Amino acid sequence: MTITSYSNTDYRSVADYESYDLLQDYSGYDNVIEYYIQGVAENYYPEYVNNILDFSSEEKKYIRFAMGDFSRLTGAQFVETNDFDSAVINLIKIDSYNDGDYVGLNSPEDGWIDISWVNSGGDKMTEYEKWLIWHEVGHSTGIMHPNNDDSHSDQYFTNKISVMSDNETNFYPTSLRDLDIQAMRNVWGQTSSPAFIRSDDPTLPTLSTIESEGNTELLKDSSGNAYVRQDGYENLLTLRDYDGVQYKIDGTTNQAAGEREILAAERIDGIDQVLWGYFGGESTPSEYRVYENDLWGEPDTDYYWYETGESDIYEIGTPGFDQIATSFGIEAPSAPTPTPTPTPTPETSSDIDVPVNKKWSKYLWKKSGKDGIIDYYADKKGKLDKKQNTKIAKKTLSFVDDMLDETESILGLEFNKVKKSKQADIVFQAKSKSKDATTYKTKYGMEVSFSKTQKKPTQYDMQDINYLTGYALGLKDLKGNSYDAADSVMAANYSDEYLGWSNNDIKALQSIW
Length: 513
Hints:
Layout: H1 17-27, E1 32-37, E2 52-53, H2 57-74, E3 77-80, E4 89-94, E5 104-108, E6 113-118, H3 127-138, H4 178-187, E7 208-211, E8 216-220, E9 226-230, E10 233-240, E11 260-268, E12 271-278, E13 287-297, E14 303-307, E15 312-315, H5 319-327, H6 358-367, E16 373-378, E17 389-390, H7 394-411, E18 414-417, E19 426-431, E20 438-441, E21 446-451, H8 459-473, H9 503-512
Parallel strand pairs: 1-3, 1-4, 4-6, 10-14, 16-18, 16-19, 19-21
Antiparallel strand pairs: 2-4, 5-6, 7-8, 8-9, 9-10, 11-12, 12-13, 13-14, 13-15, 17-19, 20-21
């Protein structure tokens, strides 16, 4: 016998007329399908299960919701009965099967069908259990495993295509898929009926919107628990910490009230991110923290967003503070306006002696092995100091490389990038807080610690890194409010564009190297 296989867009791949005929036979062909929600007290015990469990009110609510959708889709009446003996479908929740390989079963008996599944969420309905209901009831109502293949070998069919597929993706479907709906409309002779519209899941919490700009909506329930809905992902997602504990919007999951709050969520450059505001008891945040999140699914339960590591920090009054707020679709509070100082009249940049620190240049020369090669390392992942360091943006890494290439040509030295910090004479690292930015001597040479930058460093970021590197090479502050970056990278006043080493800097560096 030739078995025809249909594509994952052809309803015939999942249409099952045999299960439809069996259900009609059991129900008496009157299109009234009675179902029974069995509890522990019922004197019926299939031999293939271990322990039968009582359904919670939430679970019963979801079953009735699903049966209502089956009614509207098929044109039949799926009616709950309190009489076990009159039921055509008997629904059972259990703790496990005798054969541990099963999580759900559809078992035709003598005149009725037992539909059972393993409890995985206690009294709550997990997304996985919701999928199991659609899948197992589907076996009785006219749909089957794709192309009747119980091994699910065709990977073109996934549970996004049909609830009858066991090939998982990155979510558990909590409603019939379009292919299932098309198949059942054909099996039940409903192709001329109005388009089927899925009902709203009554077990989901009532939510209010916190922020809805962009591709991700941040929400909370009546208890303040945090959720997101994201474009292209149909299920509601909880927000959880690294240990899997769901966050509250006001941060009281693990901190005192008023300390911090979740402000927005967004998928930016392909990365799921959550924006927190740190308030410290004030009415406006003094800093933002951005945490990367991953989509994660617990076995047989739900998918959710969870934090994957340390945060990126943006302090009020810095360019990054406003920029990150804009990228998340919120308005940043204004920083206190500093008292303006008179703009100094720039002096000529010619023949200015930039102060030097010969002890520091000699120290670095000694630590480098006096071979004309200075090895440097960039802590791009922020692992050298997990409490203070953060990732270095790729474009900032490129800037450091370019700056040292320029320095090579000035000093006649070779700056060699190494893969391990222990091999380096200079280590570059980004600090989460600006107060930790500095340059200092270490046992291996020098450490240049600069404030975290945006993905593309600003001219101020570049001047700051150049200034701190100047310290590492033996330059000192050029004191005097009249000097700016055109005079020296070591000047107190930055310019509106990045200028790099000035002629005065070059002269000073060459004098000590």
